[in-house]
Amino acid sequence: MSQPELHYPLVPRGSGEIVHATRGDTLSDVLERVLDKGVVIAGDIAIRLMDIELLTIHIRLLIASVEKAKEMGIDWWEHNPFLSQKAREREERRNLTEKEEEIKALKERVAQLESSRSPSPLTAERKTRKGRGKREPEFPSSTPVSAE
Amino acid sequence: MDSPARRKEGRELSLYYLYGFSLALEPFSLQEKGMEGENNVFPLSYHDLSALVSCVPLAVYSEKALNESLKDLEWLTPRVKRHEQAIKAAMQFGPVIPVRFCTLYKSRARILEVLRNQYEPFRAFLSFVQDKEEWGVKIYMAEEAGEKLVQKTNPVLRALDDRISAASTGESYFLRKRREQILREEVERSIEALTEELYAQLSSWSVAGRRNCVLDRRATGRAEEMICNAAFLLAKEIVGEFVEGLDRLAVDYKSQGLFFELSGPWPPYNFCPRIQ
């Protein structure tokens, strides 16, 4: 009983003050309890808790960083598609825009290729490789495949 | 007593969200806002037992809507917090039995039925935890600490080291492989032994204890590995002593790379009675 006094010159006994351990009522603690513990009684609404494990992992992932993120004023989880419906919608919109751009780029490329039918050094090299030409669907008519 | 919000919303349009059970409270005691940030939490009572509820819109809490929303962490997270806050608010008046997130009822009659059916076990448990609190302790270990714990002292590893230095190249390769495996096993074993010892020490203060699954590093966001995730049910008058004891352990085990994290007081989530 005397030795601990050496460790705690500033803390009177019985005060329950914490100095060396950390105090953490984190959101993670709350989630762990509210979602996983407590009395389970049958309610009138059946909720699917089957994927609770997966859910918990992701929530924990989320909160592990949210608190840090909050300190830094970053809301990265809003942009993580797994984590939010809104972010998912944004993601879908972005995918759509990307697809449109991709199509546009492809069209340009096709137009470019059609306008210049002369074989480039690349296609010339391909001609020398036997059998490879058959697998090039991009130029079915314009690329003369090596004779077989 | 119906809340004004409920009267306004009409019978079919809302559900009762249940937070937990407490000793009978006055309807006006709780000022805490409910799940949707409106509709106060209020008690429905049977004898001296209260169910703590608030009204929530059916449109949001129907099976279909809910099972969809539960996947949306932006929706879920603040509500989990509100659930906890409602229980914490009620804890100011006395012991509370917390209920699992999203327990919903269609009518007051159904809740009164639960109160009636579970009156005995709930009432008994509330008396039991009246003078107790749940506290959480998480213990973390620095990355290399586990190996340090084993490396120097383990006789099997020491013997292997001697053989490795004397062995031919080919043989030493296999010996090193074996050493790695033994090291891993030994690290695991000594961490478990240490954790068990610490848990036993902390348990000596508690009425009941429980070791939960440790969380992944990705989930804790810490560089150290969690080696213990425990909950203890403590008599209120012993809490100060417990906290000091924990702090003492934090000092004693600092050199071994251990960190202690304390949380609480919680409602007795981990020690609730099981019901059918």
Descriptive account of the structure:
The complex is a heterodimer of chains A (148) and B (276). In chain A, helix 2 packs antiparallel against helix 3 (52-72). Chain A has helices at 3-7, 27-36, 52-72, 85-115, 121-128; one strand at residues 22-23. The model of chain A is unreliable at 1-14, 71-83 and 120-148 (pLDDT under 50). Chain A is an all-alpha fold. Chain A is built from five helices and one strand. By secondary structure, chain B is of the alpha+beta class. Chain B is built from eleven helices and eight strands. Chain B has helices at 4-9, 58-61, 63-69, 73-91, 108-117, 119-129, 145-151, 155-166, 169-203, 217-220, 239-252; strands at residues 14-23, 42-46, 49-57, 96-105, 132-141, 208-212, 225-235, 258-266. Chain B has a four-stranded antiparallel beta sheet, sandwiched between helices. In chain B, strands 6-7-5-8 form a four-stranded antiparallel beta sheet, with helices on one face. In chain B, helix 7 (145-151) crosses helix 9 (169-203) and helix 8 packs antiparallel against helix 9. The chains are: A mainly alpha (148), B alpha+beta (276). The interface between A and B is large, with 59 and 69 residues. Strand 1 (22-23) of chain A pairs parallel with strand 8 of chain B.
